[in-house]
UniProtKB/TrEMBL annotation:
It comes from the Bacteria. Its EC number is 4.1.1.5. Pathway: Polyol metabolism; (R,R)-butane-2,3-diol biosynthesis; (R,R)-butane-2,3-diol from pyruvate: step 2/3. The lineage of its organism: Bacteria, Pseudomonadati, Pseudomonadota, Gammaproteobacteria, Enterobacterales. Pfam families: AAL_decarboxy (PF03306). Belongs to the alpha-acetolactate decarboxylase family. GO terms for biological process: acetoin biosynthetic process. It catalyses: (2S)-2-acetolactate + H(+) = (R)-acetoin + CO2. This is Alpha-acetolactate decarboxylase.
Length: 231
């Protein structure tokens, strides 16, 4: 039986199309380094640098090699929050085993004039996202009555699976703090590649924290502003 080849490469065609889309409409791209399933399995070392991440976005979340702190990218600045509660600017040469980045240009803006819980914020987002299959990046500027946070401590070989590592994470409590909360809403269809939940991180004047639960209200700076970017 004679086998004929069409002379084209589907993989090459898809790659060229994706690169062209990123060049022409980079603001509509979500860039991801590695998979959530790999991180959950204990793959805590990657080769992607912070410098490389910033080529693909000015806004994002992730972690650092060895799970050495939470990563937050905000206005092209990247911060590292460690399990001792300290926060510092990340070095361009630091590497990540997992991160999600985008260029944040909001498509929706909402003003909140009364206290809202985290669940109420989720409800606002769900009510304004057109489809359960759409990604959403979010930013909330406001005054937070209460924020509970956590950060996984740095891991060492032989690595534990993520679900064991998080059992050791310290929890911090913050009250009456102005700040900016950022996050991503991902969907169940991406289970394995991303976490199918809203992941939030709070940036304050003196710290960056991964948010477990929070209550937001209008404060001295005025009413909280919710900014959403849909795809």
């Amino acid at each position: 039986m004679e086998t004929r080849h069409c002379g084209c490469s589907c993989i090459s065609d898809i790659t060229r199309a994706a690169l062209k889309l990123e060049k022409d409409r980079g603001e509509n791209i979500i860039y991801q380094a590695s998979l959530m399933s790999a991180l959950l399995s204990g793959v805590y070392e990657g080769e992607t640098t912070i410098r490389q991440l910033l080529e693909h976005g000015d806004f994002g979340l992730g972690t650092f090699n060895h799970l050495d702190g939470e990563m937050i990218a905000f206005n092209s600045d990247v911060f590292q929050l460690r399990s001792d509660g300290s926060a510092r600017s990340a070095s361009p040469d630091q590497k990540t085993p997992f991160a999600v980045m985008t260029f944040f240009n909001p498509t929706h803006e909402y003003t909140i004039k009364e206290p809202h819980s985290r669940q109420q914020i989720h409800d606002i987002i769900d009510a304004n996202v057109a489809s359960q299959n759409i990604f959403c990046a979010l930013r909330i500027d406001g005054h937070f009555d209460k924020v509970d946070t956590r950060t996984v401590p740095e891991q060492h070989r032989p690595y534990k699976p993520m679900m064991q590592a998080v059992e050791e994470q310290p929890v911090f409590h913050i009250e009456q703090q102005d700040g900016v909360l950022i996050g991503f809403l991902t969907r169940n269809l991406c289970r394995g590649s991303m976490s199918p939940v809203i992941t939030n991180t709070l940036l304050t004047s003196n710290a960056v924290v991964a948010v477990m639960c929070s209550t937001i209200r209008s404060g001295k700076a005025g009413s909280p502003l919710v900014l959403l970017k849909n795809w």
